Amino acid sequence: MAQEIKMVYGTVKQGLSQLKNSAELKSSLPGHISGRNHLNVVKSIEQLNEDIKELTEAYASVLAKHIAQTESAVSAMKETDENISSSMK
């Protein structure tokens, strides 16, 4: 019993393109909110905001790498499909 996997390359590339556009994450958290306020909670909030910003940047970087790897894998699959197809003719 033969099993066939079909991939619609245009749809996959379109999905990856949309993911790439949405992966451009920008942190809109304020950097320094304390001004002349010296409360510990304000310092904690500023540190949390900085940590969130760093995590967001790291996530965006990892996501961009995964998108690039997926695009490469899809291209390799398409090339393999074309090679197999041409050898069967």
Question: What does it look like?
Answer:
The protein has 89 residues and is mainly α. It contains two helices and no strands. It is rod-shaped, with a radius of gyration of 22 Å. The mean pLDDT is 84.
Task: For the structure shown, list the relevant keywords.
89 residues, mainly alpha, 2 helices, 0% strand
Protein topology:
Elements: H1 9-22, H2 40-88
Helix pairs in contact: 1-2
**What is the number of strand segments?**
0
Whole-Å distance between the termini? 22 Å
Query: Roughly how much helix do the residues carry, as a percent range?
Result: over 70%
Q: How would a crystallographer describe the biggest sheet?
A: none
Radius of gyration: 22 Å
Characterize this entry briefly:
This protein is mainly alpha-helical and 89 residues long.
